[in-house]
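Appendix B. Extra example for self-study. Work through it before the problem class; the solution is given directly after the inputs so you can check yourself.
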Amino acid sequence: MNWFTLSPDEWNAVALSVRVATVAMLASLPLGVAVALLLARCEFWGKSIVNGIVHLPLVMPPVVTGYLLLLMFGRRGPVGAFLADFGIVFSFRWTGAALACAVMGFPLMVRAIRLSIEAVDRRLEAAAATLGANTLWVFLTITLPLTLPGIVAGMILSFAKAMGEFGATITFVSNIPGETQTLPSAIYSFTQVPGGDAGALRLTAISIAISLAALIASEILARRVGRRIAA
Amino acid sequence: MSITVSIRHVFGDFALDVAFGSNGRLTSIFGASGSGKTSVVNVIAGLVRPQAARISVDGRLLTDTAAQVNVPVHRRRIGYVFQDARLFPHLSVEQNLSFGQWFAPKADRYADRGQILSLLGISHLLPRRPSQLSGGEKQRVAIGRALLTSPKLLLMDEPLAALDAPRKAEILPYIERLRDEFHVPIVHVSHSVAEVARLATDIVVMAEGHVLASGPAAQILQRPDLMPEDERDEAGSILDMTIAAHDPGFDMTLLRSAAGEAHVQGRIGDAGTKVRVRIRARDVMIATRQPHDISALNIFRGRITGLAEAGRPAMNVTLDCGGSAIIARITRQSCAALQLAMGREVFAVVKAVSVNKPGASPSP
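Solution. C-alpha cells for the complete assembly:
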C-alpha cells in the first residue's frame, strides 16, 4: 500500500469534487446576485417567506434537503420528469451533485452578497443617475463593482461548502465512483471498509490542502478588490 | 434661460411649500439649516418625487404632477454637485470625469473637456484615486464631472460647507469663473451670507419650508430682516462699479459708479473691468456734513430713503446714492442725535469694502 500515490478512483473523486464545486458556485452566482439584490433593495409582500426559503438549507438536516431534491428532481419527480424530456437529468449524475451543492451553498452566498449590497452607499448611485446613467447602467458601473468583495466572499463560501457537502449529495445522487463520488463520499467509503485508513487519510490531506488554497486565494482576492474600491 | 419652481411636499412633520422663478446666472437658495433648501434642489434634480410640483428649466417641463409629467433623473440633464462630492471610490479621477460624458445626446454636447479641466485646474489629478485628493480637489473634480455631462442646469448643494476656510477660499474663484464664463445657469444652496453675497446674481431666501423673498442679489442683501439671526451683521449693500485707475505710488485702485468713487487696496484689475463691491451695513457711518480730516477714503453722498428698526438699539438707514442703495447700521441714539429723517441728504462713511473681481483668474 502506497501512502503517497492516489489510485484512479481517488483521483476521480478529487477531480469530481473540484468540478462539482466549481459548477455549483458558478451556476448559482447569477441567481445568488439576483436574490441578494431582491432581498437587499426591494420591499414586497412575502419577502420574509422568500428569505426563509433561501435560508432553509442552512437550518434543515442535509439529508432532508437531499431527499426533497430527490422527490422533486428524481426521474419521477415533477421537475425531474419535465426536465428529462429535454435530456436534462440530475438523479445519480454528477450534475445532481452540483445541484445539491449549489442548493446547500446558496444561503451562504446570498447572505454575503446581500450584506455587501446593503453596504453600498446609495448616494453614489443617486450621483450616477444625475450624471445620466439609467438604472441598469448604475447597477453595472457602480453597484456591482462596489459589491465585488461580497461577491468574492460569497463565491468562496459556496465553493467551500460544496467541497465539504456530504449529506444532501449522498441522499440525492448516491455514492457512485467516477460519477457522484465526491471527496467526502470517498472518505466515507474508505472508513466503511477494512484497511481503508490509508486512503481516507490521503484524501483527508488533499481535502485540507484544497480548503486552505481556497481560503488563501479568497484572502488575496479580497485584499486586491478592497484596495481598488477603498474610499 | 429661466427656471420656474413650485413645490408642495410634506415629509413627516415638515412641510415644504415653495414657488419661485429666476433668470439669473447664479441663483442662491439661501436659508438656515433645516429650512428645506436641499429638499428643493433634490426635487429639481428628480431625486425626490414630490407630492405636488411643477418644475421647468428653460421652457422644458421636468415635473408636473398635475399633468403626470416626471422626467427620470438620468434624463433631466441637470448637473448636481453634492456637498460631499460623491466621487466614485472605485474609479480614478479620469474615469470619474468621463462617467457622464457620453450620456447626453450628441447634438446637445457642448462641454469642452480641455476648457473645463483647465478652468478647474484639475488636469494634473487625472491618474489619481479619489482617496488621494484633498477636500477642495474632490469638490473641483465633482464640479468638472457634472459639467462634462453638458448639463442644462447646474445644482450645487452647499459645495463649500464641508471645507475649511482656506479650501473655501480656494474654490470660490472657480465658481465665480463658472458663473461668468460658462453658459450654464447655476442654482446654488448656501447658509452663508458671505458666500451668497460673493456668488449670487439672484437670491431666494427660505425659512421653515417657505420662500421669504426672492429677487436680484443686491435687493435681497439690503434687507437685514431676511438674514439669519447670527449673520445679521453680514447684511449690506452691493454696488456694481468699474475700475477707473490704479495708483502705483500708494498701490490703490480707484473705482467709479453712479454712486460715487471708492478706493480699494492693491491692484485688482485693468481699467474698465466691472467689479462687485460689497459694503456691510455695520461698516458704514453716517455724517450729516461732508467729513474732512478723516482717515476713511470712501465717502458717498446720498439721500435717506429708509429708516428701519433692527433690533432694539439699532437702526438700518438706507441711502440712495446715485441710484444705488447703501445701508448703514447705526444706533437709535445716533439716529436721534443726528435728527435723521426721510429725504435728508447725508454722507455715508465706509470703513471697509470688499471687492469681488468677476472673471479674475483664481490662484492655483
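Self-check: DSSP finds eight helices and 21 strands in chain B. If your reasoning did not lead you there, revisit section 3.
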